[in-house]
Amino acid sequence: MLQISQRGLAMPPSPIRKLVPFAEAAKKKGIRVYHLNIGQPDIETPKAMLDAVRNADFKVLEYSHSAGNESYRRKLTEYYEKVGIHVNHNQIIVTTGGSEAIQFGFMACLDPGDEVIIPEPFYANYNGFAVAAGVVVKPITSYIENGFALPPIEEFEKAITPRTKAIVICNPNNPTGYLYSREEMEVLKQIILKHQLFLFADEAYREFCYTGEHFSAMQLEGVDDHVVLMDTISKRYSACGARIGALVTRNKSLLDAVMKFAQARLSPPGFAQIAAEAAVDLPDTYFDATKAEYLLRRDTLVNRLNAMEGVFCPNPGGAFYAIARLPIDDADKFCQWLLEDFSYKDQTVMLAPATGFYGTAGLGKNEVRLAYVLNVESINAAMDCLEQALFTYANEINVSVSDTKHV
Amino acid sequence: MLQISQRGLAMPPSPIRKLVPFAEAAKKKGIRVYHLNIGQPDIETPKAMLDAVRNADFKVLEYSHSAGNESYRRKLTEYYEKVGIHVNHNQIIVTTGGSEAIQFGFMACLDPGDEVIIPEPFYANYNGFAVAAGVVVKPITSYIENGFALPPIEEFEKAITPRTKAIVICNPNNPTGYLYSREEMEVLKQIILKHQLFLFADEAYREFCYTGEHFSAMQLEGVDDHVVLMDTISKRYSACGARIGALVTRNKSLLDAVMKFAQARLSPPGFAQIAAEAAVDLPDTYFDATKAEYLLRRDTLVNRLNAMEGVFCPNPGGAFYAIARLPIDDADKFCQWLLEDFSYKDQTVMLAPATGFYGTAGLGKNEVRLAYVLNVESINAAMDCLEQALFTYANEINVSVSDTKHV
């Protein structure tokens, strides 16, 4: 029998995108949908990046170096220097989005059956990359009550087995928005040193920290061989479609191994490397405006959420996500209901059920992730919808569900 | 001990790129190196493609659909229709280069330990993608004497085991330039039907056929669920750096599985999809000039090679590669020597040792692959170098090697 692979069957669908058909159906009914479900910012991509591509003068769109154009890698070292990360251009391998950096890291550091520890809730696609690489994700739970802070060291110790090879830390965090402190990073350093683990640091949202300075895993001392930075320009410059990221490490054997994976796929995208190189020359003030805008959005969103009855949303320290606990029975059902059966003034809101971000089954059932990637006016309109929806849901749906249970 | 993965160690380096440091050293000495080692054409990327990107009007470079922009996929069906492949846009998943299409196919159709049969010599990166996916490549040998025609059906039967899940066919072939006939494709159809295998068809060079019409695996009847087309615009439009390919199949379960891998990495490159969409509207005459140019180059190269003493090069029916047998002892050594120790009028030529294209150790030791991606003048200059080099090598190197053996 002709069959697809077990791996293909086991591959998880995107929990963020699975409600898309319901959103499309809502739009066809004339309902405006506010997309707080996905990290696609409405911030304009810097014109200097687009202009660099428009004005690029070449006749043949050739393969670049498999590690990315040397000129771009050299330029990137200037960017990293500015954020306190000291690396040279040979310690950078340009990837096709942050996604490929994660894939390369998993492939080059872990073998099938090896385990990677990730605080949950976590970026759902780590699951997909783990399945592709045959790697086992071991979640350790962080909790909404303390804003999803790093779980205590004992929880890591309990999860570690002889197959454990790495820890993934996303800082600031997607989906929780939690900003790990320097102290928490030092705790991770002790763990990786004691157990000889890799530390995969996904710092896609480095630029967006509101409650403190970002402390990069690359700034930890004495763990040069352990730390692998998985980076991307997607969020930094609102250039998600560019598909330009980077794997950065000072571990020479790892760089050699990753380079072989990079050579196999020939090169990262050409046009976008031009845009990415131009981005490094944006004025230092560029991030000020973006960050101020996200801060305003965060405050609007979090205040509105916490003002709703029965809703709790910890104030995120970074990124542009928040996880809120809602007075609902089932986040998947609720998010689908918002699109399928609800509207307020011909509008509704699309959220990501938090269940998709937990590795442990059953967690996150009354939580949703909200991406504050829309302007304040839209966020307020979306919150008006959510407030009304929770009221309707409590009176019509939750009640009838409870009634049914008692029949 | 902190160690990279066994997979990372097992990953093969690119045999095409491993001589690059020697080429760079030669250039530093002031020697001009003719690059016949790599399939990077000097043909200009169509201006209409570059202009489409230059003139694209958008403010935010957003993620595209994970399967690629719908407008591009719809446009691509027009292209496929023209070349006799009838598919709809939902049967196309746009990938990051043909490389990702191959990776997706391996991942979604084969599990670790499964086997894939590939006629050798074959495109070396299949090895890399196989290692990444934990898949075992079973080579069956094709021979220079008959121009690398499809091995007889018995050879396939001998190689098939219960773990065999797929056959890869690259048509026209890289590295041999062999153009598989419709009859040969029908033979493959019988094998995949009898043994319920997938047929992965890498048709990157479809446009460049000189001795007959291209017959696509997608044109085979009654094997819709078996055939997976792995395509790319890299060579078709001389746009290798775009990193736009496609996985095309009529197998619905496979499309669903591949879509999950596509969602995990979010989307293919944005700028380049705009260029690729514009390419479909190039006039039908576009390929005439390119094909005529490649034909002239092929004839120049093959005639020059066969005029050299002790050299045999079968006339390739397609693509822009040829494999030649040279009067040498060790192709790897010879190709390195060309860069390290030889020059003729301050020029030399870079070739790819054929050993890297064979799965069976020891084969291809007196063969090299030549990519006729440079203009006729450069090809002639490169052939002048090679002719002189073979003469020098025979008199100085081979002889001394033989002498040493007799000591």
Automatic annotation (TrEMBL), chains A, B:
<dbReference type="InterPro" id="IPR015422">
    <property type="entry name" value="PyrdxlP-dep_Trfase_small"/>
</dbReference>
<dbReference type="InterPro" id="IPR050596">
    <property type="entry name" value="AspAT/PAT-like"/>
</dbReference>
<dbReference type="GO" id="GO:0006520">
    <property type="term" value="P:amino acid metabolic process"/>
</dbReference>
<dbReference type="GO" id="GO:0004069">
    <property type="term" value="F:L-aspartate:2-oxoglutarate aminotransferase activity"/>
</dbReference>
<dbReference type="InterPro" id="IPR004839">
    <property type="entry name" value="Aminotransferase_I/II_large"/>
</dbReference>
<feature type="domain" description="Aminotransferase class I/classII large">
    <location>
        <begin position="34"/>
        <end position="342"/>
    </location>
</feature>
<keyword id="KW-0808">Transferase</keyword>
<protein>
    <submittedName>
        <fullName>Aspartate aminotransferase</fullName>
        <ecNumber>2.6.1.1</ecNumber>
    </submittedName>
</protein>
<keyword id="KW-0032">Aminotransferase</keyword>
<dbReference type="GO" id="GO:0030170">
    <property type="term" value="F:pyridoxal phosphate binding"/>
</dbReference>
<dbReference type="InterPro" id="IPR015424">
    <property type="entry name" value="PyrdxlP-dep_Trfase"/>
</dbReference>
<keyword id="KW-0663">Pyridoxal phosphate</keyword>
<comment type="similarity">
    <text>Belongs to the class-I pyridoxal-phosphate-dependent aminotransferase family.</text>
</comment>
<dbReference type="Pfam" id="PF00155">
    <property type="entry name" value="Aminotran_1_2"/>
</dbReference>
<dbReference type="InterPro" id="IPR015421">
    <property type="entry name" value="PyrdxlP-dep_Trfase_major"/>
</dbReference>
